[in-house]
Amino acid sequence: MPSEHETVGAYALGILDDAEATAFEAHLAGCEWCAQQLDELAGMEPMLAALADLPGSGSTPAIGESLSARPSPRVVEKLVDEVADHHAKKRRRSFYMIAAAAALIIAGPLAAVAVNGGSDDGGKVTASPAQSAFETMSDKASGTDPSSHVSATVGMERKNWGTQAVLELKNVKGPLKCSLVLVAKNGQRVTMSSWSVPDWGYGLPDGKTEESKKPLYIGGAAAFQPNEIDHFEVVTFEGKKLVQVDA
Fold first, then answer.
1. 183 pairs with which residues across the strands?
2. Is the separation of the CB atoms in 215 and 209 below 8 Å?
3. pTM of this prediction?
4. For residue 130, what are the CA distances in angstroms to 28, 29, 71, 126, 167?
5. What gap in Å lies between CA 77 and CA 72, rounded to an integer?
6. Do 162 and 46 form a contact (C-beta atoms < 8 A)?
7. Measured between alpha carbons, how far is residue 6 from residues 16, 95, 142, 225 in Å?
8. 3-state SS, residue 237
9. How confident is the model over 162-209, as pLDDT tens digits?
10. Closest CA to 158 of 49, 233, 12
11. Where are the beta strands (DSSP E) in 23-173?
12. What are the pLDDT digits (tens) for 54-67?
């Protein structure tokens, strides 16, 4: 039986049973170390829910490799080991969820799914999980900025925990680092995802390569319901707004 110190990651992911969760919460009340670790891992449940809802199972979704925000390797290794250990003992999560959790932790809390439409397998083109999810979403809103000429469409799907969203981004040139920001009707701003735009860009009609002609599809999640959202913004890390999409 692992000590309470060793179950903080499993508690953060919600895979403890009722008795284990109760025991950990009693321990947490007097343990500053566990409270600090829990803070570092907080806010991951909506992201896991978004990943679990993507089409397909039994394989890990592609995750944006360029994202740099990530916890320490020791925390990553420890958390992945905890998840795997609880899975083996209780069979309460599928292998898909374990793989998704590991990929999400490594990519950082802002990452849900970040992929482009191309591939590195000799030209074979397959739809990414984010693109597949986008194509099934009926609630979509679009916008094009008259100055930057960047175009964006945001697909939305209501969830019990908030909103799963997938951004389709076109006519953007790199190199850039960008974020998808949700602006709620109450004025709150939430960063749903962030990614890098390579030199060749995304969704360029006159792109020199097939890769540069394809849009970027990137997923995100937030705690706001669709009817609480005012608009979305794609902004650079320097604060420049590339395009706004009214919800």
1. 189, 231
2. no
3. 0.53
4. 37, 39, 24, 11, 8
5. 9
6. yes
7. 12, 21, 46, 34
8. coil
9. 999 999 999 999 999 999 999 999 999 999 999 999 999 999 999 888
10. 49
11. 113-116, 139-144, 151-159, 162-170
12. 444 444 444 343 33
Structure-token pair, residue 83: 């998840």
- Rounded Cα distance, 242 and 32, in Å: 42
Selection from 121, 113, 102, 122 nearest residue 62 by Cα: 113
Q: Give the closest residue to 245 by CA, choosing from 169, 171, 154, 158.
A: 154
> What are the distances in angstroms from CA 70 to CA 67, 73, 165, 228, 235?
8, 8, 22, 29, 21
CA distance 57 to 220: 19
The CA-CA-CA angle for residues 178, 183, 189, to 5°, reads 75
Amino acid of residue 242 = L
Distance CA 29, CA 37 (A): 13
Query: Is residue 154 packed enough to be buried (19+ CB in 10 Å), middle (13-18) or exposed (0-12)?
Result: buried
In this model, does residue 154 exceed pLDDT 50?
yes
Q: Which residue has the tokens 């992911």?
A: 13
